[in-house]
Amino acid sequence: MPGSLDKAPPPYKRFDTVLIANRGEIAVRIQRACHELGLKTVAVCSEADREAPYGRTADSFLCIGPSNAAKSYLNRDALLLAARLTGAGAIHPGYGFLSENADFAKAVEEAGLVFIGPDASSIATMGDKISAKRAMMAAGVPCVPGPDTALPDDPAAVERIALEIGYPVIIKAAGGGGGRGMRVVQEAARLHEAIALTREEARQAFGSPSLYIEKFLQHPRHIEIQVLCDIHGNAVWLGHRDCSMQRRHQKVVEEAPAPGIAPEVIGPVGLACVQACRQVGYRGVGTFEFLYEDGAFYFIEMNTRLQVEHPVTEMTSGLDIVQSQIKAAQGNPLEMSQADVQCEGHSFECRINAEDPDNFLPSAGVISDLVLPEGDGVRVDTHIHAGYKVSPYYDSLIGKLIVHAPTRAEAMTKMREALSRTRIGGIATNLSLVRALFEDEAFGRGETDIHYLEQWLKQRGAQ
Ligand code: MV4
Predict the structure, then answer these.
(1) pLDDT at residue 4 in the model
(2) Ligand 1: does its nearest atom lie under 6 Å from the Cβ of 216?
(3) 305 is annotated as an active-site residue
(4) Conformational region of residue 248, where left means phi above 0, alpha means psi within -120 to 50, and beta covers everything else
(5) Ligand 1 pocket test: which of 242, 309, 450, 457 has the largest number of ligand atoms within 8 Å of its C-beta?
(6) 10 vs 422, more confident
(7) Which domain CATH number covers 110?
């Protein structure tokens, strides 16, 4: 049933060629989805990525700048020029880089191309964490206690708001997100200094001093809901993921579904997310991030991009999220209703990083030998091969190991087996770390929160 739309759908813009404005494993993943849809692809690279094999399997391959990402993968003019030269009708931004940049999305649309993502105004609304919270509260999505407006300047007014919420509180920058620009305040005596420090950081880092305040949740889990929307007012949610296993806001292991959450508890939250998408005229794929504590959900942020961990949801839902995202950008109506979305079994993803497992420093060099696992319910998303040179210029993610099995216990066993068969020689990786995690008993019981991994690493180091 189509919902109401505040925005009129844009005119259909057909495209037969997609420029992939990214690199590494996600460039491979997007290229596969495009080719499966019968679309031609344009791969772009920096000088460091000239040898990338996905360049040879694309229909066109262009070098757009030097190794420094600011001059290549983040170079908007170079990307738009590459699209024009190759006849691309759409740009897929992947994740990171320009994927959540509203100005870039606008420039793409103004150049007469399709940005494969939501429209620029949705990106801008969700990029400002205060306007995102306001939109969610208006749609009935449960949020963390605290106002959906910027902190006032009047010190006495701020003190009253903090007291009403109750300490501890957290001060966050409206332009922040993903763990940047936030500060916990334990007691009233420290409130004003925390605000002053966070405001200055926000001004420097995000160019805006705007802040907001929330109740600080002490031991939550990080649970997210994946949505998929078309431009005709249809939206569905594709279940949930637990992404609590993280260090310094970098996720290490993700799973779907989040363990131990009853359908009656998450169901209404999923419906509220879908309702919010209809209200803001959201298009394509999106992720609602929640904190989950003591049986309740609290919205924190919405990501308007395809996420690294989308495969665990693909495994449980049986849907191809990247293909669906591209079809939504083509203006096609959703091919399924909520009743058609049936999530089955359990999926885990391990992020494999080229980094020292003890000090987490990135590790560059040539992969001397490589053995990757395969088999039923085993998936590897990667761009690497034996002889591949891991460059020091970019994120250390070199691949993702994904498994799917009927139950969580079976999926854990399958991941242990897949990890034991994996060999990556010549560079340091975090394989030993994720192998140890899959032997951990509390993780086995699904009893972890957002602080678990950092505490686990501390204890491990102390031994
Ligand atoms: C919070 C919080 C506790 N209470 N907000 C960190 C990343 C950004 N997305 C929001 N974050 C948090 N917001 C309230 N009101 C704790 C965190 C947080 C966190 C959240 C998700 C995953 C990992 C985290 C690690 C530290 C802190």
Answers:
(1) 42
(2) yes
(3) yes
(4) left
(5) 450
(6) 422
(7) 3.40.50.20
